[in-house]
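Provenance and format

Records in this collection were gathered into a single text stream. Each protein contributes a sequence line and a token line. The two records reproduced below are adjacent in the stream.
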Amino acid sequence: MILSLGFEVLAVFRIILVTIALFVISIISIVMCMLRPKNRDNAHYTALSMGKLAAIFGVKVEIRKPQQQGELCPVVYVANHQNSYDIFTISASLPRRTVTVGKKSLRWIPFFGQMYWFTGNVLIDRNNRSKAHNTIATTAQKMRDNNISVWLFPEGTRSYGRGLLPFKTGAFHTAKQADVPIVPICVSNTHDLIKLNRWNNGKMIIEFLPPVHINQQDSNSSIRHIANNTHELMLAKITELSAEAGNELVSLETEKAG
């Protein structure tokens, strides 16, 4: 009984501590952006701060990135999107001169939404297909004009334990229009990894893969083929990393078979 109560207190403590930290980081980030507006590293430094909150959840994050890859910019980064904890676990891996692309509704979240917009991230309306297509062209133009990279989640939504979901092609069309490579980022399985009432929630591994190049002559069918190949490449690496981290990935096929 006493032990159970202690765990409940730990969960509440974590929620309160993260809420306070998120508020403080958002305010400091907004002020930083006001002092150095349109700085290409605003999102990077804010993400580094957000990534430190993973320790509050008892998670150890290991980032593996080839040293020479730090020189790649602009590129389109594509990563697997698993759950709401991603904002605290994979944020620290956001490279310099990189912004993310998120849904427009994020701007209504108090403090966090304003911080997200102030740091230069791109907001899109996912419910409007015509605007979404225009966003591809706008994002590609922004990359060229400002010499920045973008980070996208090609699954289009969180997987919540369903394995690596099929990829949409928006990120790949953005890379083609901006004439830049795709850099896959693989995050080991975090489904059921974090328990708020558990002290140690294990380890997760984030690994950057070599760039995938897209030719300006590639057709829509070729882009789809590249997206599918990238999906297979990332799935294999995510499965490998998940086994190494001790939190094996359950694929959609395995789930259906069960």
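Adjacent record:
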Amino acid sequence: MDTGYRPGRPSAALHTDICSPVATDPTWSNLDHGDRLLLQADGVPLWHGLMEALQPHIVVLAIARRCLSDIAFEPVDDAWHDLHVVDTKVGGDPREPPYRVQARRYAVGGSEALFVLCPAMRSPLPIGTAQKHELGAIILDGLANVR
């Protein structure tokens, strides 16, 4: 999407976790269940406050589908819809099952944001580099539908 964390890019990117925008050491996946629950109790509302303050145009979620229930913003769309389906592996072989990227618009702090769900698996985006670039272009094109 031609964005990044460093200065000099046409747009800025920010990485946070929906369960808690506070960095943890060890990483989230290595925290024990009790620590995760403690962080999540304050972290989810803190994440929502951060989103309201920043009012992003795009929010890319690399999470398990069950975590979607943590989103408390008012949906603009009736349901999640397919934005892009990656149905081949990098080498061209069929991908089973296909990797479905879905989108839904939400009202965030007085404006709309396009939320894009990239289902988390073993890695956040288990597709090839060229496929990621294609997905980025599709996400930016989907932004045209956000007011």
